[in-house]
Please model this.
Amino acid sequence: MIQKNPFNGLTFLLTRDPDSNKKLARVLTGMSAHVIDWPGFKYVEKRTTPLLKDCLNHIADFDWIIFTSTRAVFYFLKKYHAVHCGLKPLARVKVAAVGIKTAELAKEQGMAVHLCPQRPSIKSLVEESAFKNSKNKRIFIPRSEDARDDFVRAYQKIHEIHHFVFYKKRFIKQDSHDVIRLKQTGVDWVLFFSPSAVASFTNNFCRQHEAVVFLQRTKVAVIGKTTASHLDSLGVAPCVVSKKSTGDDLIKGILKHVLSKHI
Model:
């Protein structure tokens, strides 16, 4: 018999940034789960260099802006509005967004999105005809410090690409007493959305081996093959690997796994 509240009595440890953890926690607690907020990192804005400021001042001269995440949209607009009033300079600039959430946020902020690859990945963006079948386009890319460079490497000799680090992740050090308590009590599930979140989690243990042993005796759910592969290299096999990069899809995968145990 399927339980009415399948997450009732289960404890989930969330390892995203504080804001993302709050959003995910609301969904899980609404499904009767207990949640432990264990942020792996926080986002920190990088300073605006003279070269970046010059590009922002002349943003209307670009053909494309590429957003690879919602954070890229947020930090771009924060710096953009520091030098511009209104979105008129962006009127003729085409926007490419990786992921539905990224595209939705860009639209909400008043930008027209001209391209959103069906698969939310940099690899899919590289394959888009808008870039493969053109030359000498001026492309602006606001990015994170640890962003992949696949697109830049693929097109740096074909297009004029200006890419800048707008923000970075800063690992959060958990209180040592909380780490001891976690090792003693354990949890039912640990959720990871990136390799950096895994690295932050293991760094909070005195020894990496202790973190690995903890994860091996805990159910682990992750977003994407890259994060899953990173865990596999540590000797941890995730129970759930979501192909789509959203919290909702990861929860659906966990729910399917939990319900399968009650059939």
